[in-house]
Amino acid sequence: MSRINIIGAGLAGLSAAIHLAKADIPCSLFSLQISERSQSVLAEGGINGALDTMGEGDVVENHFNDTMKGGVFMADPNAVENLTHGAPEILRWLESIGVPFNMENGNIILRNFGGQKKKRTAYAKSSTGKIIMSAVIDEARKYEAKGLIKRYPHHEFIRLILDGDKCTGARIRDCYTGKMYDYSGAVILCSGGMNGIFPGKTTGTTQNSGDVTATVFSQGVILGNPEMIQYHPTTIGISGKRCLVTEAARGEGGRLYIERNGQKWYFMEEKYPELKNLMPRDVVAREMFFVRRQPDCGDRVYLDMTGLDESVWSRKLSDLREELIKYLNSDPKTVPIHVEEGIHYFMGGIDTDEYHRTNIKDLYAAGECTCQYHGANRLGGNSMLGALFGGKKSAETVISCQYDLSGDEYIPVSEYEPLAEIALPVLIEKISGILLSGLGIVRNKAMLENALGNLSSLRKEREYNHREINRFALAEAMLRGALERRESRGAHYREDYPEKDESYRKTTVARINNGSADISFRTLAERRSHESNS
Fold first, then answer.
1. Are residues 101 and 237 in the same domain?
2. Catalytic-residue membership of 511
3. Which long-range contacts (CB under 8 A, 24 or more apart) does 292-296 make?
4. Chain segment 194-211, per-residue pLDDT in tens
5. End position of a domain, from candidates 292, 322, 343
6. Burial class, 3, CB count within 10 angstroms (exposed 0-12 / middle 13-18 / buried 19+)
7. Residue 498 included in any domain
8. What single DSSP character describes residue 96?
9. pLDDT band, residue 241 (cuts 50/70/90)
10. Which of the following is catalytic: 111, 151, 242, 281?
């Protein structure tokens, strides 16, 4: 019997699998690593939901408004409405399966997070992702025992199996044996962000290589908003990557400053008196970029947590303190830490509608690999929510299709598969450098055209394998999307077009055309009332 095929076993993939299994629909989970080593484990600060356990009068409409405003009104409002109205149920479900959120008097404690005026972020100290993943993995194992979920760690996605504009399955390689199999059935892509395109510059695991997105893009899957890359304002450098200093540190009272004329200048508090250090991430990162370039300022920004109460360190940020002492050999309780911006999240990705359908029939996508809920900038606390809710929503869409799963589950593949080759690390580094030269916190036409020219020159240097060719196409889509968006919005800041232009309040659409990326723009849907969505 065939199954629904899920590519990726992080929060989005597990959520999709569990909700399919609840409906007695069998599925297979394919991933390079075990779930315990997925990107989702690294999430620290928390997950949003308008539970109003703190008595601030929070409601889901506030969450909707903050999410739309944080994304600079470039997300699909109907998708965001589904997400924010579904968030309380997700948090209650997590609580029911054993997630030990920080609690008080039997209620989930909610904390402040960037871009939100109400306390809305549930957390488990500052290891929320790891703790949520443990509970969700345990929940999935109940259905594994029933045979409804099959997990295939150390299995690599090679490509989609297409019949015209319909997806009929996925080609998968067993990384231990090297053997390949064609698994039949609908496919849900939950392959995560494109961290591996920026080795050493991202907070995420480079096991999320971007190869799945690059491959399906080259196979005709449309991408949305590929230029939208979030730089998290507070990271530190460690071997091979950026280490995230959770936004929870600022949510609990941490303050950013730079030395100006020899004095501490708490610039966010002066410039943004309402939300101060908890402005959306794109704003904070950009302000850090600009203040370092002021002639009367130093070249380092610091996060000052020395004023936090002992109870905050012991009950809420103990694991963050332990991590910083380990990596910096310095105690953030007594010494401010030097922080820098680092690539953290990809708002753009595989283009889906509010039901998580792609432009290819029977192909769905959820989680960070998609362009879905976040528009031009993601609010902290909405990533795990987007993954869990997106996995659930994609499963519900699959369930509604009532697929016939009577065919064979898979067939062995004997022929050579060129997409099983790898992209050489030296080429990955070169493409990364080109992308970074154009897709920084501040961009302009000259930077982007120069990056595209360098990418084109590199493309002509030698013959490349299929994976490498696909990476070139993806990189081109990201750069061309940024070049064609002649405005500043959220994470995309053009110093030659520093203002928002409402004619660009549209989704950037990237299509493959003879190996190159074509860019167009699509008008956003109008918001329906929640009652009509119910």
1. no
2. no
3. 292/258, 294/260, 296/260, 296/261
4. 999 999 899 988 788 999
5. 343
6. buried
7. yes
8. H
9. confident
10. 281
Q: Is residue 310 part of a domain?
A: yes
Residue 444 vs residues 280, 450, 477, 498: alpha-carbon distances, Å? 22, 10, 16, 10
Handedness of CA 264, 270, 274, 280 (dihedral sign): negative
Q: What is the mean pLDDT of the chain?
A: 95
Q: Give me the number of domains the chain comprises.
A: 3
pLDDT digits (tens, 9 = 90+) for 316-337: 999 899 999 999 999 999 999 9
Q: Which of 102, 104, 64 is nearest to 82 (CA)?
A: 64
Closest CA to 478 of 510, 501, 437, 522: 510
Q: What is the pLDDT of residue 532?
A: 41
Could you give the 3-state DSSP secondary structure of residue 269?
A: helix
- Residue linked to tokens 């283009």: 351
Domain that holds residue 461: 419-523
Q: Using alpha carbons only, how large is the chain's radius of gyration in Å?
A: 22
pTM assigned to the model:
0.95
- Give CA angle at 159 (454, 2), nearest 5°: 165
State percent of the chain over pLDDT 70.
99
CATH number of the domain where residue 274 is located: 3.90.700.10
